[in-house]
Amino acid sequence: MAEGGEDEEEEEEEAAAGEKGEMLGAPPQHNGFLPGKEGENGGPGGCTAPGGRLETRLSRRRLAVLGVFSCYSLVNAFQWIQYSILSNVFAHFYGVSFTQIDWLSMVYMVAYVPLILPATWLLDARGLRLTALLGAGLNMLGAWLKCASLAPDRYAVTMAAQAVCAVAQVFILGLPSRVASVWFGPSEVSTACAVAVLGNQLGTAIGFLVPPVLVPNTPNDIDLMAHNISIMFYGTAIVSTLLFFLTGVVFEEKPKYPPSHSQALLQALPPEDYSYKQSIINLVKNIPFVLLLISYGIMTGAFYSVSTLLNQMIVTYYEGEEVNAGRIGLTLVVAGMVGSIICGLWLDYTKTYKQTTLIVYILSFIGLVVFTFTLNLGHLIIVFVTGGVLGFFMTGYLPLGFEFAVEITYPESEGTSSGLLNASAQIFGIVFTLVQGKLTTDYSPRAGNLFLCAWLFVGIILTALIKSDLRRHNVNSGIMNMDAKPVPVDSPVEHENCTALKIQSDL
């Protein structure tokens, strides 16, 4: 969209930067190939005769794309947590058990696992724009369906609505690294990924804070409870509708010029050279990625479990403190947002992916141990502090995993690697939530948290075993860590021979 005047204006404003060689950290030349006009030579950028320069530029639209994506990801995360943080309220309103309310959160995890492969295939086959519209559109549909569940006998309706939101999540969680890679340059890609993840974290934070304020526990007045829930549901639906239309206006498939050297190489690949099946096989054979897949699932699954059961853990020791339970959850996630941004900036500056990931993993483990043994001391201020420390590292880890995966799996699709990481997280999240919930109910919150601590320790060991092979960084730095050889391609426009780059993975 908006190809005409805006792109011409961008080209004029950015030409000076391109001429001066400000190529976002990419080498000014690579093997003498230069992208040409969009749509020529069978690819998004074409090429010119040998001796030209590979152009990489930043588009102003990238900030709008990142902002809109972060916002509708925020709303989706808000809809995930809004039931569990009010588990006692919704259990009373619908007349169901706490386990049934927990399933309103776990349906997000259940839906993700079988749908992730079709969703990542759609992302690779049909592109970023369609995937973004599906995510925002289904998020809007689920929000409006919830407005039809405002009666005590409509638990099934609210479950169906939450299931729609869960499907929307499949088209959202795997996009941060794709949005960052396609739209942002090497010196800002990790920070952009962190901001994209930040939207989801902020939605969880708002989900911890706002619902307890909008829907106070009024067990003796069901009509008032229904009215308060309606305010939350209708407000969410209106916001999600606005964001759906903004997604249609702002999102484009990709910028006119690639933002990085690694993206330029990928865009030069003829479409017929890409195989989704082979990409999956390559990822499964990549041992460092498999280790990251398991360790990421453990960490993120533990975060999902703690978030889902936080209300039950807090009210076990601090009866009647539903609002403070929400505030503690807010503290946990806001601290994690700060951690995400700091980690993203740190990665862009140092490129120390494995070291940073391992240190954050160890500190998350220590944070959960401290949180576990201070939860029952009777002082909420201590829980706020330990929850904040836990959140800083545990949720700050999320963009680290995405970016590390992209580095060690390049040139495989960012959406596919991120999607598999999230699928692992959902599987571990389901198991952890069920087991921790059972241990919390039958024994105590400490028993459930110690179960998670044991798994985090396993995750530390797996992370330490990952071999750090920064393929994307090496390409952007001009260090070819994979074969890149020219393959003749006939131009459908000019009927001239042009050379595109075919990238073959070392996998």
From TrEMBL:
Gene Ontology molecular-function annotations: choline transmembrane transporter activity; ethanolamine transmembrane transporter activity; heme binding; heme transmembrane transporter activity
A GO biological process this protein is involved in? regulation of organ growth
Q: Where is the composition biased (Acidic residues)?
A: 1-16
Top-level taxonomic group: Eukaryota
Residues spanning the membrane? 63-83, 103-123, 130-151, 157-177, 189-211, 231-251, 287-306, 326-346, 358-375, 381-406, 418-435, 447-466
Q: Name one GO cellular component term.
A: mitochondrial membrane
Identify the Gene3D superfamilies for this entry.
Answer: MFS general substrate transporter like domains (1.20.1250.20)
Q: What does this protein do?
A: Uniporter that mediates the transport of extracellular choline and ethanolamine into cells, thereby playing a key role in phospholipid biosynthesis. Choline and ethanolamine are the precursors of phosphatidylcholine and phosphatidylethanolamine, respectively, the two most abundant phospholipids. Transport is not coupled with proton transport and is exclusively driven by the choline (or ethanolamine) gradient across the plasma membrane. Also acts as a heme b transporter that mediates heme efflux from the cytoplasm to the extracellular compartment.
Instruction: Give the UniProt family note.
Output: Belongs to the major facilitator superfamily. Feline leukemia virus subgroup C receptor (TC 2.A.1.28.1) family.
What name does this protein carry?
A: Choline/ethanolamine transporter FLVCR1
What's the source species for this entry? Answer: Anas platyrhynchos platyrhynchos (Northern mallard)
